[in-house]
Design brief:
Layout: E1 3-9, E2 14-15, E3 21-22, H1 26-44, E4 50-58, E5 64-73
Antiparallel strand pairs: 1-2, 1-3, 1-4, 4-5
């Protein structure tokens, strides 16, 4: 089975996956990358009004083959004086 590495980033911290994991195929690695995003979001939100969280999948040759992103934005709909 091929080995894939899932690196993560929350704009402040980049974590490189040094060990990787064997998956049957890229679709299985994709599912893992997507699943990790909500867990990361719980750790970094609600710091600030905008955040982009990434999971980047690399193959065993070190090539980035997939990127999953979760974006969070807060926008006030009233003027600053009324808050």
């Amino acid at each position: 089975m091929p080995r894939y590495f899932i690196d993560t980033s929350d704009q402040d911290v980049f974590c490189r996956d040094e060990e990787g994991k064997e998956y049957a195929n890229l679709d299985d690695a994709r599912a893992e990358a997507v699943q990790v995003l909500p867990d990361m979001a719980r750790d970094v939100l609600p710091d600030g009004d905008a955040q982009i969280i990434l999971a980047i999948v690399r193959d065993d040759e070190g090539r980035s083959v997939l990127q999953a992103a979760l974006s969070f934005h807060v926008t006030s709909l009233i003027p600053n004086a009324e808050r």
